[in-house]
Amino acid sequence: MDLTKSYSFFKPEDVKDRIHIIGCGSVGSTIAENLARCGITKMTLWDFDKVEDHNLVNQMFRQKDVGKLKVEALRDIITEINPDAAHDIVIEPKGWQGKIVSGYVFLAVDSIELRRRFVEKFFSSPYIKAVFDVRTMLEGAQHYAAVWSDEEAKQNLLNTMQFSDAEADAETPMSACGVVLGVATTVRIISALCVNNFINVIKSIPVKRFAIMDCFRFTLDAF
Asked: Which architecture does CATH list for 16-222?
């Protein structure tokens, strides 16, 4: 892959550890696509779901991907962007079910309870480098991050997960027909900020632990 446009700014070989994307829907697929365009190849994709027609509105998938497992379709998209990734990508079509991981982790799965279980399981792990979490609504979104050597940041991240899937569902924007609402632009913006935060970590620039934005009122706060 020709990285001439970005290589002087970010060198993918500076990423020494594997990247895990847990959940390959709207956020996860967008993060993976952004990372692929940065030259990242060592990714593990975790998701058990298949691509459906309604996923095309706000996820990276294409019409020809409908019916495929999301991890398989996303692997194909990444390797079309960067053929060098073909031998480095690992897919986990059963999703994350407690398996040991190491490196950098992007939490993009639908379940807040599963996110909390992940953070609790690896809270004291010396093998996790950083965790990045993205949560989207319709117009707004939130991004959380913790470098795993920072005890306070880890605890702050865990503290944001102290609610149930049922409580999360109650706050999720729905159509009159009961369909979860989402637009690509909100996903694209917050996912890009998340990847930029990851790049800053690799470049030893202080991480933003929390960002909240309204993508249609053009407001952003980050701390």
From this structure: 3-Layer(aba) Sandwich (3.40)
